[in-house]
Amino acid sequence: RRQRQMCIETGNAYYRSQESFSERAYAREELEEMLKKAGLEAVEVFHEQSFEPPREASQRLVYAARKPMRK
Fold it and tell me: DSSP character for 50?
């Protein structure tokens, strides 16, 4: 579980916000199986926060998935 706190000062105002979130890592094969079980198919897989192909050293993959059209 991670927490992040942000402080923003604008003129005479000062804003503070906090968020808390959890992350879980999955192997690529596990994630693709989860997509399949959910009725989705992977369209593209990208390296982290880019539109580049995944690299061997990629720590995060971003999936573009869709629900297949019925025939």
Answer: S
